[in-house]
Design goal:
The chain has helices at 6-25, 50-74, 83-109, 115-133, 148-152, 154-178, 183-215, 226-254, 348-363, and strands at 33-38, 44-49, 258-262, 266-271, 277-280, 286-290, 297-303, 307-314, 318-325, 331-336, 339-343. It has 364 residues and is of the alpha+beta class. It is globular, with a radius of gyration of 26 Å. The mean pLDDT is 84.
């Protein structure tokens, strides 16, 4: 099978690496540091060297491309079948490589571009293509909606993938429309849409299986073959794992708090999902309340729909530590010698109360 697709493998690999050549041609126009990570609001908060941005993403894409091909082509059920799907596997990563690098270079050269909106649109288009090809997928262990009921029955597989194709097309169109919404709102809807696209076809497949059992066209008590048992265990384990991951990610993105504890001589800052910090009142040399957010690029930390924590950098303070809620209405800038911290409460009123207490403690 590798010999059959050797020419396409070579061409697709070259296309994946083309952004390196483009980066070298644009080298003198690119800034020394290139934005490589953005906040949920579309603002750059992570930067890498020019060499990192030009060379590493295409090389990583190439490795991913070959891993996907090895797994897909090694599946015995894919031999001489699923030719259109194999083409999709061959050309998806080259498309992603060209798109992601073009976006990276485009934003580096024109900071007015909105990375989030463009990404929503392109991801939506990708799902439109996948949804179009999904009904053409024959039974296999590597591509498609690989639930046990679909793998055990060709009729169930075909019905599930026809339905799944429609779900993916509808989801892709919706993701394209999200590009026209405010980024923060679109992010939340994207998570919901992806969850629907992942689980609704699986539920449909199970319901279809139950209808087959009821009509007598499928036997729920039929002993499974060894191959079916192994795949069933893998599939169920994967579903459990993905469910746990989705729940954990959802909890992380939408929860968390920052607890400020005022003691006699110190303030303890204890955020969820991040290490606590302690400030001695006598070390605080300046306090400033700002009725706006303080922007900065994240060096090392975490961000969610709820919190922004960790080490940041901006032109005003240089390196500073942030313990704030996401996009706060007000912030407190705390200076302790050369150390700068940015703090916030859940809202402006809580931040103002925190500031008043800090003033009272430091002046007292």
């Amino acid at each position: 099978m590798f010999k059959e697709h050797r020419k396409q493998l070579i061409i697709s690999s070259i296309i994946i690496l083309l952004p390196i050549a483009a980066g070298l041609l644009l080298w003198k126009y690119l800034p020394d540091t290139v934005a490589t990570h953005w906040t949920f609001s579309g603002e750059a908060d992570g930067w890498s060297s020019k060499a990192f941005a030009v060379f590493l993403p295409p090389v990583f894409m190439l490795i991913t491309h070959w891993l996907c091909i090895l797994v897909t082509f090694s599946d015995p059920r894919n031999k001489n079948r699923n030719k259109k799907i194999r083409k999709l596997v061959l050309w998806t990563i080259p498309f992603v490589s060209l798109f992601s690098s073009a976006l990276l270079y485009g934003i580096a050269l024109d900071t007015t571009l909105n990375a989030a909106s463009i990404t929503f649109g392109m991801v939506g288009i990708m799902f439109l293509f996948i949804g179009n090809y999904l009904p053409k997928t024959s039974q296999n262990y590597t591509i498609g909606i690989k639930v046990p009921w679909a793998l055990a029955s060709e009729e169930n597989w075909n019905a599930t993938h026809r339905f799944g194709g429609k779900v993916y097309v509808a989801g892709g169109l919706t993701l394209v429309l999200l590009a026209f919404l405010p980024t923060e709102l679109a992010i939340g809807w994207m998570v919901i849409i992806l969850l629907i696209m992942a689980f609704i076809p699986m539920i449909y497949s199970w319901l279809y299986f139950r209808r087959q059992v009821k009509s007598g066209t499928a036997d729920a008590s039929r002993p499974q073959t060894r191959e079916e048992k192994q795949n069933s265990v893998i599939t169920k384990s994967t579903l459990v794992f993905l469910t746990v991951v989705f729940i954990a990610v959802g909890v992380f993105l939408c929860s968390g708090s920052i607890v400020y504890t005022f003691e006699e001589d110190t303030l303890t800052i204890d955020p969820s999902y991040w290490s606590a910090d302690r400030l001695d009142y006598e070390d605080i040399t300046a306090l400033e309340l700002r009725h706006e957010n303080v922007s900065g690029s994240r060096i090392w930390g975490l961000g969610s729909f709820r919190l922004l924590l960790g080490h940041f950098e901006n032109e005003e303070f240089g390196h500073h530590i942030r313990y704030t809620y996401y996009d706060p209405q007000a912030c407190i800038v705390v200076t302790c010698g050369e150390k700068v911290l940015v703090l916030s409460g859940k809202d402006a009123a809580q931040t103002e109360a925190l500031y008043a207490e800090l003033i009272a403690r430091t002046e007292g």
